[in-house]
Design goal:
The complex is a heterodimer of chains A (104) and B (472). Chain A has helices spanning 28-31, 84-87, 89-103; strands at residues 3-5, 9-17, 35-43, 47-49, 53-57, 63-71. With 104 residues, chain A is of the alpha+beta class. In chain A, the strands form two sheets. A four-stranded antiparallel beta barrel of chain A has the order 2-3-5-6. In chain A, strands 1-4 form a two-stranded antiparallel sheet. The longest helix of chain A has 15 residues, at 89-103. Chain B has helices at residues 9-14, 16-24, 40-47, 51-60, 72-80, 104-117, 130-142, 161-172, 186-197, 207-228, 243-254, 290-298, 324-338, 345-357, 380-389, 424-438, 446-455, 460-469; strands spanning 68-70, 89-93, 122-126, 145-153, 176-181, 200-201, 234-238, 261-267, 318-322, 365-368, 393-397, 407-411, 420-421. In chain B, strand 7 (234-238), helix 11 and strand 8 form a beta-alpha-beta unit. In chain B, helix 17 crosses helix 18. The two termini of chain B are 41 Å apart. Classes of the chains: A alpha+beta (104), B alpha/beta (472). Chains A and B meet through strand 3 and helix 3 of A and helix 5, strand 4, helix 8, strand 5 and helix 9 of B.
Chain lengths: 104, 472
């Protein structure tokens, strides 16, 4: 199992408020789940695996404790798939414009 | 901070006023008048900066002076479906040219200047939007620490792609990003962080956050005058928390644009609850939508400062909504016909401009006052890919068949792009209802009446008439 060492860039997870501690007046689907948090920083512990309770030093120098959930976690953002519903819009409107150009 | 602080939700919220006072360096009490009334103009004048000062401060960190482009092909396309003599010229202000890629750099510039001037070591901002990257970027230039608190993921651990990108941008500028699951207690965590770090609250809603946008309205007025020799007939503003409307309108006023209509446009997300863990990821727009636009218009002081400087009903002449599908369609048109890959936020008001230009005279000028940088997560393709994954139907069709959270209808033709009017009088009546609740139905004093007339851009007579009906 991959282990993070002191100084590695990691992500931790923490429950901020349990369901019973949350604000009043929430919709039921929100009220029944905890408010949770993820923060990234440099590992303070000597060595840790995903799932371990650890401490990190964040970009502003704060010490935050939580469960290790990622070691040098990836940015999971992409451009998705080209959308069939959008693919023809440029062609359609350029045709409209060139049709108008023909009339003038 | 005492040694054994109470970190329960109620405990932290009870310290709210004290924490906020320390964190913005403004004594809001000095602006209170009586009852529900406060002196808005005094707050803006005393706590804010003059336009000249703002321009100077923004120059220090490369903010503003963005170009204004005419959308020749979009205007041509509008005129294909317009009556003879109709089809206004559409212009767009390319705010994506700001350092962090959106107009939010204008708001962040003054907050970070103020934080530095007052000797704070860092700033904190509660935002899931472009403002995070703006604060992070401005902090980087001023050597301040920066924490951005985001609402990002639901209880299934699914994150909104656009907010993920905004978080990545904050980290790129060196900020710490605290990411939370769905819920309004983001504000609770935000207060704890302010208390712990003693940083400056770079709120979107301080006088600084608004004064920073005034240069946008002022610049665009100057640019339109220089280009076409007259004032814009209308300026369209994507409307959420009210800051963009308020700041831009104040800038237009300062430039002397007396006959320019200030028009707010939001994406219609009616039916989706803002605090719902289920609905959170079923919104394909994370801001510029009715979920912020309506509640912030009808009760601005729900913000993270005691008195919100963004008060949209003081400035809005008209307010419309567009559908999610129409904005995706416009995003495509902007890229494919004008060669500008931008958005999403500014494209909400661009959809509005496209619809309204059709009814306006040919020599009128209509300005869309912002663009934002686009990228992975923010682009229509990742948003629609994500929406499909959550079971939302995406298809071509009639925009009026849109149901937020259930489908996204991409128009079949540019002629279908339309706006839906929101009756501002109804929003003003909701505002008065809230006032009646706050006052337990008590009568309004003359000072409160004057305040509400200014607050709602109306007469004291109108306020009296409708306050009575609201239960006063």
């Amino acid at each position: 199992m991959e282990k993070a060492q002191t100084g590695d860039w990691v992500q931790v997870f923490k429950v901020v408020l349990k369901p019973e501690e949350r604000a009043p007046g929430l919709p039921p689907e929100t009220a029944k789940v905890p408010l949770t948090m993820k923060v990234k920083g440099f590992l303070i512990d000597q060595s840790a695996a995903v799932g371990d309770q650890v401490a990190i030093r964040t970009a502003t120098g704060r010490k935050v404790e939580g469960k290790l959930i990622g070691i040098n976690p990836a940015y999971e953002i992409d451009y998705g798939r080209p959308q069939p519903e959008l693919l023809n819009i440029g062609f359609e409107t350029r045709s409209l414009l060139s049709g108008e150009a023909d009339k003038q | 901070m005492n040694n054994n602080p109470d970190f329960s939700y109620q405990g932290v919220m009870s310290r709210k006023n004290r924490i906020m006072k320390q964190a913005v360096g403004i004594d809001y009490d000095q602006f209170e008048l009586e009852g529900i009334a406060f002196d808005y103009d005094a707050m803006m004048n005393k706590a804010g900066y003059s336009l000249e000062e703002v321009r100077k401060i923004q120059e220090e960190t490369n903010v503003g002076k963005t170009p204004l482009f005419e959308m020749h092909n979009l205007t041509k396309l509008v005129r294909l479906h317009a009556e003879p003599g109709k089809g206004a010229r559409i212009f767009i202000k390319d705010e994506a040219c700001n350092p962090s890629g959106s107009f939010k750099a204008r708001r962040a510039s003054l907050s970070c200047y103020q934080a530095q001037k007052q000797g704070y070591r860092g700033v904190i901002s509660a935002t899931s939007g472009n403002y995070g990257a703006a604060v992070a970027s401005q902090s980087a230039m001023r050597g301040l620490n920066c924490i951005v608190v985001q609402e990002l993921f639901d209880s299934q651990d699914l994150s909104q792609p656009e907010i993920m990108e905004k978080g990545r941008a904050c980290e790129a500028y060196g900020a710490e990003v605290v990411q939370l699951s769905v819920g309004p207690e983001l504000f609770y965590k935000f207060l704890i962080l302010l208390e712990e770090t003693q940083y400056f609250n770079a709120s979107l809603y301080t006088p600084f956050g608004i004064a920073g946008i005034e240069t946008l309205g002022y610049e665009l007025a100057e640019q339109v005058r220089r280009t076409v020799g007259k004032d814009p007939a209308a300026v369209l503003i994507t409307h959420a928390g009210g800051g963009n409307v308020t700041g831009t309108a104040r800038g237009l006023q300062k430039a002397g644009c007396k006959d320019t209509d200030v028009i707010g446009i939001s994406v219609d997300l009616s039916g989706l609850h803002m605090a719902s863990d289920h609905d959170f990821n079923r919104k394909s727009f994370t801001t510029g939508h009715t979920g912020f636009g309506v509640p912030f218009a009808t009760w601005p002081d729900r913000a993270d400062v005691p008195r919100n400087a963004a008060r949209s009903l003081r400035y809005l002449d008209r307010y419309y909504t567009v559908t999610q599908g129409e904005v995706f369609y416009m995003t495509e048109l902007l890229a494919q016909l004008e060669g500008l890959e931008r958005g999403p936020a500014g494209n909400t008001s661009l959809a509005g401009a496209f619809a309204l230009a059709r009814e306006m005279d040919r020599d009128d000028v209509i300005v869309v006052q912002e663009t934002e940088y686009t990228g992975a997560g923010k682009h229509p393709s990742p948003q629609l890919t994500f929406a499909r994954k959550l079971g939302i139907a995406v298809k071509r069709g009639k925009p009026e068949e849109s149901i937020p959270g259930q489908n996204i209808i991409i128009p079949e033709s540019p002629a279908q792009i339309a706006v839906k009017r929101v009756d501002l009088d109804n929003l003003k009546k909701s505002y008065l209802k809230k006032v009646a609740q706050e006052k337990g139905g008590g009568a309004l004093s003359p000072v409160e009446l004057d305040y509400l007339a200014a607050e709602l851009k109306t007469s004291t007579g109108w306020v009296e008439k409708h306050y009575g009906k609201a239960g006063g």
